Amino acid sequence: MKVVKLNISGMHCSACSGAIDKNLQKIPSITNVKINAISGLAKIAYDETKITESQIAELITSYGFPTSLDNSKALEIAYIKGLKRRLWVAIPLFIVIFALHMGGFHTAWSGMVQLLLASVVQFYCGLPFYQGARNFFKTKSADMNVLIALGTSVAYVYSVYLFLSGAEGFYFEGSSAVICFVLVGEYLKSSAKKKASDALEILAKLLPAKARLVQDSKEEQWVAIDKIQKGDKCLVVGGEKIPLDGIVLSGKAEVSSAHINGEEVPKTLEAGAEVIGGSLVLNGEIVVEANKDSNAFFVYEMLDLLELSQSQKPPIGALADKIASIFVPSVVLLSLVVFVVWLFVGQGLAFALSIAACVLVVSCPCALGLAVPLAIVCASMRAKKAEILIKNPDVYEKAKKIKTIVFDKTGTLTKGEIVVQEFKVLSANQPKDLILGLSYAMQSNNPHPIAKAILGFAKGFATINLESKNYEIGKGVQARFKNTDYFLGSLEWVESQCKKPLQGVSREDCVALGNQEEILALFYLQDSIQINAKATIEALRARGVESVILSGDNAANVAKVAQDLGVAQYFAGVTPTQKADKIAQLSQSGAVCFVGDGINDALALKEASFGISFIEATELAQEVGDVLLLKNDLWGIVEVFDIANATLKNIRQNLFFAYIYNIILIPLAAGVLYPYFGIVLQPAFAGAAMAASSLSVVTNALRISNLRLKSCA
User: Fold this and answer.
1) Distance separating alpha carbons of residues 305 and 602, to the nearest angstrom
2) Distance, CA of 240 to CA of 271 (rounded, Å)
3) How far is it, in rounded angstroms, from Cα 591 to Cα 316?
4) Fewer CB near the last or first residue (10 Å), C or N of the chain?
């Protein structure tokens, strides 16, 4: 069995991907199908002895969804450009048609202009929907394409009939409105889908392009990453990224793996230590032996997991598509039934045709096409005012179900910057100014995170000219001043250099300064907590959402942050895959939202019902998160929930307005009152009902644009 990855364009919703899946599953040589309607990516397992990759791509294309084997995204880009061209044609033509209709210009020339302009909108701008509706005959699955194509065609054809017969009351503006607004929604959705798929490419670029392999003869050779095999040896020096997963054979270096485990403090690695590709060597050099082939590296495993998690994301339009699959054939069948019934009872062809047309016109999905996308557009505009980018419309639907919100610690609840929380002078023989001046001089020009914290704390004290300075990897700095040796680094190392070890002091998260005689001072370090972090957690709790901390950092640091913020449940020392597993476990008790900022958070962001990231986060976290906060303020999370809840309520109201007219007027249009009261709904009134339904939806949706959000107290 082989697996092929394909790029599929033209999928509007889950009904499209479901139709492809259903038809491919009928082919015996295809054993497994995973299709993501959001990103347009497909992974298909097949028997290579019975079918080829090209044949699979041709099959999907024959269903009406252009498919390519490469990753160029050319088809997807061309599809989006085509939508944009049609949109720029549809909008001005619709405005003219609407102005003529509402302005009371019911002359022959007005009808001719409306007919010509509506024809362009119908058959050029609406072409993608006709192409999609045509696929119904191959896939046997009705989606929004069928609903749009059928409804607009009925309104258009009946308007042409009225124009040719010399009557008034055309419905060209109704058919044009549906196509125009649905094109807007489709363009925005397709653009968002492209961004979602681009996130995977960012992860693939995490590793360097080449690795420096060394042979037993010590000769160096640069090779492409995908050529690395298990057992290859690679030399990595300070300032370079480690290009493979493996074991350190020789050397010593300080390595930062913050994107893997969330720990902001680098670790000293020596022979026997395990390393992950993408980690950064800060100083020193090591030789690493690959313990797996390149295709099994952690980064690529994460890439596969991300693709899988994306394929499990259902789009918000799934419910509308299910309704459409029942609604469309039901309306068509009803119109045929009423046509036959009235013809059979002797009311004549004109009367029967008028009744059938009236049923179809009053069922035209103008309001249905506006109900969800218009509310989302208005909500997105309101969110943008609050410096929030909601990239995935699923958020509006899912926020109401969230019971637990999980926060990464480093860089999310905390600033990801080590600071000196407390400073203690222990020596009675050395003044504070001298101690801080020495500390500043010893750490100057050192890019280490701890060095930056001490430099920030000791800034402003008198500059001291050291006689010498030497870095001890993984230990600290040794310097000489006025013929005295000073040591600044881990407490254990400094103690080993002086005659008087300390007793009865807290030894957690501290750096010591000492000489050969005594410990002079202690710097206690902490990752600083973000502004509004506690207020955000309390506000979420008031909305029925409990907070959990999930971090790769050590238990002591995570416990301290949890205590300061009033969070009862926390998990420490977890890897990226363990984060995703923990999200899945928590999801068994209710929907979960995850908030993170690092590459190590990417899997958890996608595993959660929806993920939130920040504009200052890593590029990958920005892309895979469903919500991007454009401000460095955690209170934006509360605003996301408030906007989402208001939008979901608005969508439900819109759907009510979209359907209530149909529920009331379809029986009336079918003529149920005619035998008793002689009342029949005229097509002109059916068109008015369509307009009233749309107006109700538009007016209601616009209320979201002025939604008032609570500010942080």
Assistant:
1) 10
2) 18
3) 16
4) C
SS3 310: helix
The Cα–Cα gap between 575 and 258 comes to 11
Sequence-ordered alpha helix ranges (H) in 399-445: 432-443
Name the one residue in this structure whose structure tokens are 């969800």.
372
**DSSP code string of 483-543:** TEEEEEEEHHHHHHHSS----SS--TTEEEEEESS-EEEEEEEEEEEPTTHHHHHHHHHHT
**Smallest Cα–Cα separation from 527: which of 477, 618, 473, 452?**
452
Question: What is the CA 294 to chain-centroid distance, rounded?
Answer: 27
Residues 6+ apart with CB under 8 A from 590: 401, 402, 403, 404
Structure tokens at 444: 């100057």
Q: What is the mean pLDDT of residues 305-323?
A: 48
103-107, 346-350, 515-519, 694-698: least confidently modelled range: 103-107
Per-residue confidence (pLDDT) for residue 545, from 0 to 100: 93
DSSP three-state, residue 254: strand
Exposed (0-12), middle (13-18) or buried (19+): which is 26, by Cβ within 10 Å? Answer: exposed
Summarize the confidence of residues 416-438 as an average pLDDT: 86
pLDDT tens for 241-269 read: 888 888 999 898 888 776 555 555 678 88
Write down the mean pLDDT value for the chain: 79
What is the spatial distance between Cα 498 and Cα 516, in angstroms, rounded to a whole number?
4
